[in-house]
């Protein structure tokens, strides 16, 4: 009896000690291969520094939703559970099933429409129940509320050219980023400042509306008259949007020194200008805006050419010949509008949908010491390069393709540059120059992005209805491409000091079952799963009984 009492006290003290240690020293072990339950340090810092309650309403739930969406729902719940560990009582969440909460169909539809207006697009999904195909409406998103502010985030995101299972897996991988970035935006107390140059672009304001509307909630936007601004001090980033006027040397110097002082920059620049010359085609001419030597110094060359992509390109209406006494207008692949669906290894473009481009040229990297160059946007391998000046005839679009002519390979059209840049004006600013006192020949560490298509961040305009179209929307196919996501990710990467965007690098591997083997060996594996556990339990019971008999018969 005495020994048993001592044993009991030792066990009690050990359990008490473990609990006391656990209450003081927190740790978790993630034994999964891809660390699916481990959130990034940036997300942890964000959550640990919350100063008030963040409430998350998740609408991705419901009775009988397909297994793939159920897996995504579970991933959201698991991620929010992890968020609560680091955010404590400042993170609260609930899952809302609109079908269960609103029995009245009219009321439910009104609620769905209101949520859709906030940016969570309803998705129709099909499921098999007892051999019957059923259709249900799912809202794959969440609304995050903080104080008097709220923001919606879409949780179903992926490349539309992937299979449904791959899209769901891409969405699974992006859950942490979508939730953490939404929390970051809704809780932000200070907005970064972005300058837009108004002197150098002819792009109408109506073609910038969706871009401005997407950036405005999270950043302070400033139109900058570069010619009358002595410096770019006070800005965090500059956005060079489709310049068509030549930058003078003074303004180029201001951009250079802004970057030398650690400023971020994103350039959407065309090296070729395209004009319509007749019904037969367009004219491509070399366009120099004066930034070529600046970008070359930083490590990238804009080439005066156009890419024809035979595999991935958008369609436009073209006259393919007469039909009786009338023109025969058909949607025809226009190879000068490549759809970019090949991406580099960067969180900016991970799991991104295809990007719509118009008359895009190539980028080459050149030597720049200490600069890390990461390709972001690339064409398919079936390309042909057209050097400007040249005529682009509409007739070729209706002809059969000669595959042997499309042998230029994968071409880069978007590039990320990171590091400490060297000034274009190094060894050119003399002590007698008034600018010498504040001149920096070697820069602080910073980042810039260069894209060789000025139309990526520009939206089209519906003249018939007098309304701007969404950024990335193709009015001929009705598809909305990922242009807006790319621009927002790019700006986020440039200006995100916390590094939340790194969460986009999370990778969850698909491990599908072998359906053929499953069908053939179904009975075998069912037997194994049913019988083996019973046998193990029986063996343990017999062994325990045998041990007790030996112990108490002595």
Automatic annotation (TrEMBL):
Transmembrane segment boundaries: 524-547
InterPro entries registered for this protein in UniProt: ABC_transp_unknown (IPR019196), DUF7088 (IPR055396), Motility-assoc_ABC-rel_GldG (IPR019863)
Pfam families: ABC_transp_aux, DUF7088
Entry annotated with the keyword Iron-sulfur: no
Keywords: Membrane, Transmembrane, Transmembrane helix
Domain of life: Bacteria
Domain ABC-type uncharacterised transport system positions: 191-490
Boundaries of every DUF7088 domain copy: 33-145
Keyword match Transmembrane: yes
The protein, known as: Gliding motility-associated ABC transporter substrate-binding protein GldG
Organism in which the protein naturally occurs: Arcicella gelida
């Amino acid at each position: 009896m005495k020994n048993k009492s001592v044993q009991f006290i030792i066990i009690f003290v050990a359990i008490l000690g473990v609990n006391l240690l656990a209450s003081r020293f927190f740790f978790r072990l993630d034994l999964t291969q891809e660390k699916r339950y481990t959130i990034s340090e940036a997300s942890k810092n964000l959550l640990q520094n919350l100063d008030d309650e963040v409430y998350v309403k998740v609408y991705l739930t419901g009775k009988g939703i397909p297994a793939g969406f159920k897996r995504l729902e579970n991933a959201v719940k698991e991620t929010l559970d992890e968020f609560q560990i680091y955010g404590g009582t400042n993170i609260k969440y609930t899952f809302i099933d609109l079908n269960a909460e609103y029995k009245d169909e009219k009321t439910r539809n009104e609620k769905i429409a209101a949520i859709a207006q906030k940016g969570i697009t309803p998705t129709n999904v099909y499921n098999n129940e007892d051999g019957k195909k059923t259709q249900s409406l799912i809202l794959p998103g969440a609304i995050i509320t903080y104080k008097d502010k709220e923001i919606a985030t879409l949780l179903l995101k992926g490349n539309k050219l992937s299979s449904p299972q791959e899209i769901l897996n891409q969405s699974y991988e992006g859950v942490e980023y979508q939730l953490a970035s939404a929390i970051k935006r809704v809780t932000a107390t200070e907005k970064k400042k972005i300058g837009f140059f108004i002197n150098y672009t002819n792009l109408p304001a109506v073609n910038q509306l969706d871009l401005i509307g997407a950036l405005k909630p999270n950043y302070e936007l400033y139109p900058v008259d570069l010619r009358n601004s002595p410096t770019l001090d006070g800005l965090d980033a500059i956005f060079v949007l489709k310049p068509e006027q030549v930058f003078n040397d003074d303004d180029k110097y201001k951009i250079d020194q802004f970057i030398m002082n650690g400023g971020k920059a994103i350039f959407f620049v065309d090296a070729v200008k395209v004009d319509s010359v007749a019904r037969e085609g367009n004219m491509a001419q070399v366009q120099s805006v004066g930034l070529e030597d600046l970008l070359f110094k930083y490590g990238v060359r804009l080439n005066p050419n156009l890419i024809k992509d035979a595999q991935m390109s958008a369609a436009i209406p073209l006259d393919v010949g007469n039909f009786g006494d009338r023109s025969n207008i058909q949607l025809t692949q226009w190879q000068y509008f490549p759809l970019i669906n090949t991406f580099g290894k960067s969180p900016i473009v991970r799991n991104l949908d295809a990007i719509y481009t118009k008359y895009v040229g190539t980028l080459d990297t050149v030597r720049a010491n200490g600069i890390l160059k990461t390709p972001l946007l690339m064409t398919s391998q079936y390309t042909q390069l057209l050097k400007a000046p040249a005529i682009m005839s509409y007739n070729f679009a209706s002809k059969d393709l000669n595959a042997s002519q499309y042998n230029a390979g994968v071409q880069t059209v978007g590039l990320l540059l990171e590091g400490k840049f060297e000034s274009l004006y190094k060894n050119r600013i003399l002590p007698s120059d008034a600018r010498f006192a504040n001149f920096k020949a070697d820069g602080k560490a910073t980042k810039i992005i260069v894209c060789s298509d000025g139309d990526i961040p520009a939206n089209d305009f519906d003249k018939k209805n007098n309304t701007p179209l969404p950024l990335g929307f193709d009015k001929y196919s009705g598809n909305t491409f990922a242009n807006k996501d790319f621009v927002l990710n790019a700006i986020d990467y440039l200006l995100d000091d916390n590094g939340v965007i790194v969460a986009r690098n999370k990778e969850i591997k698909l491990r599908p079952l072998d359906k053929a083997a499953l069908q053939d060996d179904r009975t075998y594996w069912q037997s194994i799963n049913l019988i083996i556990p019973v046998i193990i339990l029986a063996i343990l019971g017999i062994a325990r009984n045998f041990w007790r008999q030996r112990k108490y018969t002595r």
